[in-house]
Design a protein that fits this description.
alpha+beta, Cathepsin B, Chain A, seven-stranded mixed beta sheet, two-stranded antiparallel ribbon, 11 strands, Cathepsin-l cysteine peptidase
């Protein structure tokens, strides 16, 4: 009798769990407008449930940052790997003279946040295309051009995807090489006249830059050196504005929603272990409490739409070179 009751309880528990998973799956599909064929739905649901369990376990154990569902939750690893589109080449430090910003002599603010600055364009979505390098390059140039001239407006990432022969379109690239291309071939064109349309790795288009007037030119760019140096990055951030960088993206990062991201597996010794381009737009510190120390962080802009993370942004630990973010910062100045 006891064995029968035990078996019955197990059956009931499995049925309840299956019903909960089915309800979660239906709710997710409705929220993120997912329409799958009957055959595909089975595999997509399996991916979703796997992520659901990982999210529950993480949020139960981690108090510094949280995970949640987004448009990636039912995707395969092959599909999310496409978004890791950074291919940094060997670092070439430009020899031209430039102002040296004293780090220890100049007072730095305790908090910088360019997210609401008029020169920062809205967060965009790179789609199923490894073009993060183009978004990082253009974001910094847009800001600097606006800061210098007062002219606010979008520049074209699609032109880089289609035309930049120094990089690989939807198959990845290096934001400093994008600046080199723009420096050598005229400049960036208006984003309204050459809008972003890339959705997959197969949609690299034919270059149409010849029919568009140049809207901004590259005057100078370089790395933030020596590296990694969080204080120096803070100084350049104050003087130059948003700074592109490259990071290593772990699977957990895809489902970030809030808090200060960190992961022991993202403290890496190889500086070339990076696969995604982002833009640092500020920094700050989570105050200490009676139970936890203060947490310094970077405010970072992504190119996975405003539906990802915190309105398209994320916080990540500052001062420990988390995910290599302090090894690849660079700046650009409009001509």
């Amino acid at each position: 009798m006891k064995l029968y009751l035990a078996i019955l309880l197990v059956i009931v528990a499995v049925a309840v769990a299956s019903k909960e998973e089915e309800d979660l799956w239906k709710s997710y599909k409705k929220k993120f407008n997912k329409n799958h064929s009957s055959k595909e739905d089975v595999n997509r649901k399996r991916n979703f449930i796997k992520r659901q369990k990982a999210i529950e376990a993480h949020n139960r154990d981690n108090k510094e940052w949280k995970m949640g569902h987004n448009k990636f939750s039912d995707m395969t690893e092959e599909e999310t790997n496409v978004l890791r589109g950074t291919k940094m080449v060997k670092r070439r430090v430009k020899s031209a003279s430039e102002p040296i910003y004293p780090v220890n002599e100049r007072p730095l603010p305790t908090y910088i946040d360019y997210r609401s600055n008029r020169c920062l364009q809205p967060v965009e979505d790179q789609g199923e295309c490894g073009s993060c390098w183009a978004f990082a390059a253009i974001t910094a140039l847009e800001f600097n051009h606006c800061k210098k001239t007062g002219a606010r407006g979008p520049l074209s990432e699609q032109m880089l995807v289609d035309c930049d022969t120094y990089n690989f379109g939807c198959n990845g690239g290096d934001f400093t090489q994008a600046w080199q291309y723009l420096e050598n071939y005229g400049g960036a064109v208006n984003g309204t006249s050459y809008p972003y349309v890339s959705g997959t790795t197969q949609t690299n288009g034919t270059c149409k830059s010849g029919s568009n007037a140049v809207a901004a030119r590259v005057g100078y760019y370089n790395w933030v050196i020596p590296y990694p140096n969080a204080t120096l990055i803070m100084s350049y951030l104050q003087m130059e504005g948003p700074l592109p960088s490259a990071i290593k993206v772990l699977d957990s990062f895809f489902y970030y929603t809030s808090g200060v991201y960190s992961d022991p597996a993202c403290i890496v010794s190889d500086e070339y272990d990076v696969n995604h381009a982002v833009v640092i737009v500020g920094y700050g510190t989570v105050p200490s409490t009676t139970t936890s120390p203060a947490i310094p962080y970077w405010i970072v802009r992504n190119s996975w739409s405003t539906g990802w993370g915190n309105g398209g942004y994320f916080f990540i630990r500052r001062g420990v070179n988390m995910c290599n973010i302090e090894s690849w910062t660079a700046f650009v100045r409009a001509a």
